[in-house]
Design goal:
heterodimer, A: 450 residues, alpha/beta, Aspartate Aminotransferase, domain 2, Aspartate Aminotransferase, domain 1, seven-stranded mixed beta sheet, B: 498 residues, 3 domains, four-stranded antiparallel beta sheet, 13 strands, 35% helix, 10% strand, globular, binds pyridoxal-5'-phosphate
Amino acid sequence: MNRNPYSPHTEADRREMLAAIGVSSVDDLLGAIPADARRPALGLPAGMSEAEVQSHLASLAARDRPAGAGPFFLGGPVQRRYIPAAVPALAYRGEFLTAYTPYQPEISQGTLQSVFEYQSLMSELLAMDVVNSSMYEGASAVAEAALMAVRLTGRKRVVVATEVYYQYRETLRTYARGPELEIVEVATRDLAPSAAGAACLIVQHPDALGTLVDVRPVADAAHAAGALCVQVTEPHACALLEPPGKLGADIVVGEGQPLGIPMSFGGPYLGIIACRDALVRQLPGRIVGETRDANGTRGFVNTLQTREQHIRREKATSNICTNEAIAAIVASVYLALMGPRGLRAAAGLGVERAHRLAERLSALEGCRIGDEGPFFDRFLLATPLDERTLHDALELDGIEAGGVAGADGYPGRSGLVVQCTEMTTEAEMDALVRGVTRIVTGSGEKAAAG
Amino acid sequence: MRLPASGATTAAPVLEPLLFELEREGRAGRHVRGGENADALIPAGFRRGEPLRLPQVTESQVVRHYMHLSEVNYSVDTGMYPLGSCTMKYNPKVNDRVAALPGLADLHPRQDDASVQGALALLWELERMLVKITGMDAATLQPAAGAHAEFTAMLVFKAYHAWRGEGATRRRMIVPDSAHGTNPASAAMCGFEVTTVKSDARGNIDLDALTAALGPDVVGLMLTNPNTLGLFEERVRAVCDAVHAAGGLVYGDGANMNALLGLTRPGDLGLDCIHINVHKTFSTPHGGGGPGAGPLCVKERLRPFLPGPGVVREADGTFRRSSDDRPRSIGRVRSFFGSFGVLVRAYAYMRTLGEEGMVETSEDAILAANYLAARLKGRYALAYDRPCMHEFVLSAAAQKKKGAAALDIAKALIDEGFHPSSVYFPLIVPEAMMIEPTETEPKETLDAFADALLRIADRVESDPAPLHDAPLTAPLRRLDEVTAARHPVLRWKPPSRP
Ligand SMILES: Cc1ncc(COP(=O)(O)O)c(C=O)c1O
């Protein structure tokens, strides 16, 4: 019996193949491997049946507390959102899921057209000219946008707002070690005055704390200084807010996970990157374009490939090869199902609930919304308590309360970043209000119990 | 299946309309309702000015649309996919199912350690297994794919040399001419100058050329083993020794790890680190281009520089995210922990196989490749005639002289019912056809594929011209890629908008 359950070979097959090769065993084919390094014992466990694997994984999963298990206000780039049933049913069909990069367009139109549709839908949402077929995820997309701006301007100074997601800023700093870029972090309000000599200004709207940011002056300052404006955004926000293409952004990046992709503890996700037409030759990654076949029938192909590593090698715009194509297909199915009304509804529910919740929380003694100005679907909750203390106390109540702004690296901030989406329920909001009331004001259930 | 449309005529023929071409104003899904009051909460100056022009289609239209598209997509689930360097093996379904368990799929990456003990345990076990398989000491699971791991390793190398005070001098990376394009691209992204070394007549790195290229300014060597010719580097230890003697480090591109499971460990051969293309070796679905996952395994001396955090196990058996063991970390290379859903699938697959199953996997992959090479080498030139590992490269240079290039042969394979091999890679073999059958294709399929290529070889001998028109049986004929690049149409635009 085969030790690999997926092996199709019988012993007779193996004998015939060895005979055709003219050797007596596979070992005869391993002569190039140094003899003393051949067939080491690895010390791995023995194999399992499918039923055993299923129950082993189920037992691991049972040690986790999934997001739906209690009140949940974590968010940021990764959001708990409703995934319509048809999304996985279509996008994860084997014909899409088990194909690879469409090197043979004649037999890959499913992938190619679906990705072209993703590019079209995303362009519309962002009001940008060109969207590529995907980057790994949001943070590396931001870093690649900075590298793109560096190539386009010939400058090595990148200015990024401290209200950009901290994971994105950290990743940017890591990437910058390679080409030795100068990364300057300033508050959003100081971006415009820092434009001189910069390759780009990186602004996030809505920012990491949920605040709405006036991007236009940032873009104007960047352009006046010969720099580019890179806007980090979120797909749902673009359904309700003036999209980046109307605000002066030259390159737009973000995380596409909220578009039907499970949170899955960090990945795989969907890196969004878009740019103006004039910049497309410096865009990293694959791009699908429309064309015709020899009969004149419309079809789609990977195009503008002279930007890419398999042709340009060390002169390529990026090293990216394997991308996140299935996530782009997921996003296209999601956007098609939701349509303009559904997407606006999902985004709008998050906004409504965040505002209702903020109002209730800021009515509590000592609590306030920590950042001035209008916010979108998340906000900073500042209380007299230390942020960690409050967070951990809520955690003990079974409430995933959100990020801790100060410890996460948002200078001058302290408190919880509370995210709402269409999945946030009244009961969850009640639980958070109750929890904060008890912990911060010492009243409520605890007082009653004490 | 779908029946051919009767009598429907459009100005320009299409395989399937675009979503935008299916819409009617007023159609809508009802997946999420409400939120109408949000606009009032957003100051006027911030509100979206023009309508959101997404298509208005019903769910049943969306279902039929993507079903139609799925029908015109070739995949491993529908047939053999011998794309060299890509390891298109069968992707077991149970792996997809366990990755979708709510206790794994519905976890936010910022949940506290206490609420994700199962996920952390899985990652910790996976890391241990990868380290054992590669003969390394530590790993980071963060990189999203092979190329991402290459770039991560370049940054690690740079930090290592800088820590030793040689950061300013070591700026040149050596890359063999057979290497995948991501290798030089990753080195360049890290600011290194790339020196290409040639291969010798047996398909190995030319040791003399390597020695000549080495010097005090060298960061290291990027080594793919088995290389992209499917050949095991015959003097791998001498190669690594030479690089180390010059103070450089050896990076292992582990894209071809499917040949080595339990047969040898890169860490025993002198390599300082190696990435694993989990989507290849450990059978996770390639998704039409991605996602992948590219864990990077390293020797002890590089551990302090790895991206953080990793997972550590406490004395009491609990797990915790920590960067304590990487004090000189280059920082994170992405948000959060990596392609977790991909890693879960790989973990399930590895536990299914166990050690013996893994060894058999690589043995069968090598057997299948050598078998196909033996069946084909009389009619197509084998680029290097020695035993291959899990893949091999043919040259269609002779066929090209007769009138059919590698591209024509690839397209003719489509009419024979197969996805073509990789073509024109590696660059050092003229008219390259790189064939990787994998261990999961039965012998009768391997035979049918060989028969198809032999029939095509006959056609090249007798009448090559019609091959230029292949494929004839695919959903589309050959596509005009030149016009696509010259006059790029990269999105649908409403007819009214130029
Ligand atoms: C030899 C080799 N190296 C590196 C890569 C890059 O890996 P990835 O596509 O996962 O980024 C590939 C695959 O495409 C490859 O075949």
